[in-house]
Amino acid sequence: MKIQNELKDQIIHYSKELRLPVFRNEYEDIAQESAKEHAQYEEFLLKLMEREYEERLENRKKELIRQAGFPSRMHLHDLKRELLPPDAVSKLPVLERLDFIKSGQNIVLAGNPGTGKTHIAVGLGLKACLQGYKVLFTSVHRLLTQLRESHSSRTLRQSELRFEKYDLVICDEFGYISFDKEGSELLFNHLSLRTGNKSTIITTNLNFDRWSEIFGDPVLTAALVDRMDPQCRDSGGDTGRREERYAGRREERYAGRREERYAGRREEGPGRWRARQSPIRCPEPEAARRCNCSHRGGDRTFDGGDRGVVSAGGSEPRLRS
Predict the structure, then answer these.
(1) Backbone conformation region of residue 69, classed left if phi is above 0, alpha if psi is from -120 to 50, else beta
(2) What is the arithmetic mean of pLDDT over 256-277?
(3) Contacting residues for 243 by C-beta, under 8 A, at least 6 apart
(4) Given this model, what pLDDT does residue 247 score?
(5) E strands along the chain, which residues?
């Protein structure tokens, strides 16, 4: 009996040092089961190791969920799909496979408040944690606050390295508050770190067309949308169509400006235009060379060159200096 107690104490000691709680708590029960089944020693050891592995795997999932920072446990099976928009109902089965995490695709859940965006995002995040992915849930406001603090304390690079390691980042409530220039640049640079490598889910009440209202900079907004696409899934329409629409608007705007500018020139300067095209005889060959003269029908004529004509009267041309 004394020897058995010593062996038991040693097993408990080493299991604590090696951090094997299942070995410490269940080895006796598993040993008795193996004895009843007349199992070999290797079978007993394998069963004990399986229990330890299962326990660690379960604890890891719980820790991933805890570290993700979800506001609540909103699983996908609790979602009332009949109340979702038709576009969300059709795309949800594809998203549930979590293939977008493996390929590093981005997801934008856009819609009015109360349409299930956050529930879907949290549900996908919980499922990702259960499959062993490292997930971060944060609101855009909280993320921006952390970025400002890191920038002030000069620890921004450390925050960026941590941010890049997450398999999935969920940014909730994008569009409820606007940013200043510094905040827009910090958020843009932070989200750009994950482009093409890791997945990001953004929930927003604004379509892509209105993101410039939040950033206050159309160029920065277009760059962020470009980084979310072309592999981004969203409910706001196709990126190609959106780009064509933007291109059409830009072309119409620029064409209108060009037409106004040319029309103003035609209205204000018809005399000057004719004077610039009117040939003027140059009296001397030397003057012709200085005045950018050209030969027309054997006569030396002056067309004004780059300096233009002020007046065509008199025997000698008067040039604008």
Answers:
(1) left
(2) 48
(3) none
(4) 45
(5) 107-110, 135-139, 168-174, 199-204, 233-234, 280-281, 293-296, 299-302, 309-311, 318-319
DSSP 162: H
> For residue 128, how far is the Cα from the chain centroid?
19
**More confidently predicted of 297 and 77:** 77
Q: Per-residue pLDDT for 37 more than 50?
A: yes
Q: Is 169 helix (H, G, I), strand (E, B) or coil?
A: strand
Distance from C-alpha of 281 to C-alpha of 300, rounded to nearest angstrom: 6
d(CA 212, CA 257): 23
Omega cis (within 30) before 230: yes
Q: Which residue has the tokens 């909103």?
A: 74
pTM: predicted TM-score of the whole model, two decimal places: 0.66
Q: How far is CA 113 from the centre of its chain?
A: 22
**Rounded CA separation 22/12 (Å):** 10
Are 184 and 215 within 8 A, CB to CB?
Answer: yes
